[in-house]
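Entry type: protein chain
Record version: 2
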Amino acid sequence: MSISTAQIRELRERTGAGILDAKNALVASGGDIEAAITSLREKGLAKAAKKASREASEGRVLAYVHGDPGRIGVLIEVNCETDFVARTDAFKDLCHGLAMHVAAAAPEYVRDEDIPERLLESEREVYRAEMADQNKPPEILERIIDGKVQKWMDEKVLLRQAYIRDNDLTVGDMIKHAIADLGENIVLRRFTRYDISERV
C-alpha cells in the first residue's frame, strides 16, 4: 500500500513520531491514521523508560496567569529533545496543563531529590514525636513514619501529585504518557509559582 507524504506529515504532527516510525505505523495499519496513533502509543509507552536517559535540551518556558485579576501566576520550563516537538500543539498543551496544575496544586518541589534531607528528617522527627506514646515495636513505628513521610511527599512533590485533569494519573505518569505520544524524552525542569495572597 502506498503511504502519502501528507499522511506521514499528519501523523508526525499529531504524535511527534519520527518519519520512519510514522511511515511504518501507517503501513502496518493500512493507512488508518487512528490505528497508527494507537500503535505508536502502545510502542511508545514501552519505550518511555528507555528515553528517560536521552538529553532534553529543547522545549519551552510558559507563563500562565490564573484568575481575574490574576492572583496566581506560574512560570514553568518543560524540555524535550527537538525543536520540532517543542512547536507541536501537543507539547504546548502539555506545558499549559502542567502550568495549570502548578497553579492549582501549589507543589513545592519538582522531584523527590529536590527536597532537602534536613527537611525530610525534620518531618520524620515531627511524626516520631506525634507517635511517642504509641505502644508499638520500633520497626513498626518506623514503617508508619515512612508511610506518613511518603504521603507528605505526595502532597509536596509535583511529579507525585494526582494530575488535576485526571486524578487516576500522577503528574509523573502523565508526562510518561506524553513521552509515549510524542516519541521524545520530556523533562519538567523547574517552575516558579506566585500567589498574591502569600507574603514572603
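Comment: Helices lie at 5-15, 19-28, 33-51, 83-86, 89-105, 117-130, 138-156, 171-182.
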